[in-house]
Structure formats: C-alpha cells, structure tokens
Amino acid sequence: MERFAFIIHPLEIEDVARKFPSAQRMPASWLESLLRHSPPIKASHIKGVRSLQGTEAEGWFIGCLLTSKQMMELPEQDVLDKIIKSARKAEQLGAGIVGLGAFTAVVGDAGVTVAENVGIAVTTGNSYTVATALEGIRYAADLMDVSIADASVTVLGATGSIGSACARILARDAGNMTMAARSLDRLEELASRIEAEAGLRPQVTIDLAAACRGADIIVAVTSATGAVVEPEWLKPGAIICDVARPRNVSRRVADVRQDVLVFEGGVVEVPGDVDFGMDFGFPAKTAYACMAETMILALEGRYENFTLGRDLSVAQIDEISRLAARNGFRLAGLRSFERAVSREWIQRVKENADRASRGVAAKGM
C-alpha cells in the first residue's frame, strides 16, 4: 500500500464557518486570529485509490488553517512555518510524499524550503496542473467549436517558467500565437526558441490588453498580485485559462461576461473506488490536478521531489501526463473559481457568444 498526503486550507474565512458551525457565531477577525495560532489537523483519510496497474494507495488531507488572504498578507516566514508543520504532520501519519495545495504552493519559493525541512518528498502538483489546463483548453475548444490550428492564441506572462512551458507546448498545435510579458528582450528570445522547436514565430508585446483583444484562446499566468484581465478586453466566445495564483482574471469577468469561458484548470477522474472522506465541491471520485499529481507519484513509488520551485519544464509536464494515463487518471471536466463546470454550462456560454457575435456583426453592417 502506497501512502501520500495533501495539504489543503480554507480559501475564505466563510469556508471555516461552513465546516465548523460553531464558528459562525464568531467575528471574522477572531476567527482569523484563532486560525493563525491553530496547529495542522488531519482533515480526512483518503481510501480506495487503485491504478490500472493494480497498485493501491491511501492518503490524508492535512488542514493548514490559514485562509488565502492570510497566506498572502501574514509574514512569509510565519506562513512557511505553518506549511512545514503541516508537511511534518503528513510525515508522522506515514505518507511518503506530500502535495502542496492552493496557496501553500505559492508562498515563498514554491515548496523548496518545505522540502528542505521535512523527511518526505514534496511536490506542488504544478506539472499536472499545467498538463490538465492545456488538455482543458483542447476540451473547451472542442465544445466551443474553436479550432486551435486556426485560433489566435495568447499567453500572458509567457516568459515565466509556467508561461514559457505553456507557450512551447501550445505552439505545437496553434496556428497563431501572441506572447505578452514585461521584457521584450526575453519575449524575443523565447519566440526564437519556439520558432526553432515548433516552426511557429509568436508575436510579442508588453501590452496585455492588446494581446487579449481578438484572442480566441488566452492562457493567463502572470506574476501579478491582482487581477489583470478586464472584461472589456475579451471578444465573445473567448476561452480563458487562468493558471496563475493569485488569479489573473477577476471574478467580475465571470459575473458580467456570460459569453466567455473562464476556467482555472481541469477536474481529474481518480481511478479506483476512491473515498476522499470530505466534500470539496467536485463530483464523486474526481479531484484537482495538483492532488492527482501527488497520488500518481505515490502509485508509481516515486517518493522524490517532483515539481518544486518556479522552474517548470516541458519534460516534466510530458512525463506526468504519461504517468497519469498509465495509472488511469484522466480529465473529467473543467473547474471555474474552485467549482466544477458542466458541459451544459459551457454550451450556454457558446450560445451567448454566438448571439453576441451576431449582434456585433449586425452593428457593423
């Protein structure tokens, strides 16, 4: 039996009140103070993970009791200490590898310091997150009747480790690509590399708005600390995959633009008769890709640091994709703002986009 653990945390203070009804009577400031001084908890026992190869695994969700806001605003060392204690809790339970979920994978140096302070392997899950995000783009494009080969593809934050990996992989299929980032020199260097690898020479710009206007597919993965993609920049029917943490796309886009598809990554079907022991808003037997990466590595007996730091390689993404398929993990849909979205919902977006496009065409006549 292989063993893994995955660190989770409340995204918002309201999540704590939903989990613990007694907390509903406490002012938010009191509750935040209580969380800050609380030790990690074993949130649930995960059972029933079984690969296509017949290997079985069990694991644990470890609760690191800080909200996303606290993780971004509290002193970095205090947050890292909490994450390290959570990883040590996983080690005490017998896990051979621990995954860092949500903002625990963002703080500091993206897991490097955590790995240096525990006796088990650590991964952020970012490789499979990117793999499923790219797979999600293909899935969404198919449902939205968008041909990637004919589409205008934009990558925001293209010179970062995740952005460059996304651009290099998408360039294998895209007919047209624009890359945006802060440094034109680095963009030009990456464009030359992509041209040598894929035969496609992307256009480059430091103007994010210009890069988005007219784009059919947008991958947003800048290092900005707040939202940078505005509703006014987007054409009807645009597909926006927001891989960044904190998000690059504001919730306002989802609220006011019912004719664009915004998603953050894939929902992954986990092989076996899996029971997570808790409900995190996904359909039964499905999980986040970062969770799935941790399970995949455990099933493979790969108790080694896999995805750490800010440097993400195409080779890692291709490898985890291969291991996922070998063990029976597959994309089961998309997620948007931490919730699974249905094919029916995507169809409604497509219908809204078709109506909006017809309206724009009529005005131009």
Describe this structure in words.
By secondary structure, the chain is of the alpha/beta class. It folds into 2 domains: 197 residues, no CATH class; 155 residues, NAD(P)-binding Rossmann-like Domain (Rossmann fold). The protein contains 13 helices and 16 strands. Helix 6 crosses helix 12. The longest helix has 21 residues. It is globular. 48% of the residues are buried. The model has no long low-confidence stretch (mean pLDDT 91).
Secondary-structure content class: alpha/beta
Share of β-strand residues: 15-25%
**What letter string, H or E per element, gives the SSE order?**
EHHEEHHEHEHEHEHEHEEHEEEEHHEEH
Beta-strand segment tally? 16
Question: Stretches where pLDDT falls below 50 for ≥5 residues?
Answer: none
Q: What do the pLDDT scores average to?
A: 91
How many domains, as an integer? 2
* Strand order within the widest beta sheet: 5-4-1-3-2-13
Please give the largest β-sheet.
6 strands, mixed
Please tally the helical runs, counting DSSP H or I stretches of 4 or more residues.
Answer: 13
> How helix-rich are the residues, as a percent range?
25-40%
Shape type: globular
What's the Cα radius of gyration? Answer: 20 Å
User: N-to-C terminal Cα separation, in Å?
Assistant: 66 Å
Q: Can you summarize this structure?
A:
Helices cover 40% and strands 21% of the residues.
Write the layout of secondary structure elements.
Blueprint lengths: L1 E7 L4 H7 L8 H9 L4 E10 L5 E8 L4 H6 L2 H18 L3 E4 L11 H5 L4 E3 L2 H18 L8 E5 L4 H10 L5 E5 L3 H15 L4 E3 L2 H5 L4 E4 L18 E4 L8 H6 L4 E3 L1 E5 L2 E4 L10 E3 H11 L14 H14 L2 E7 L2 E3 L1 H21 L2
Helix pairs in contact: 6-11, 6-12, 11-12
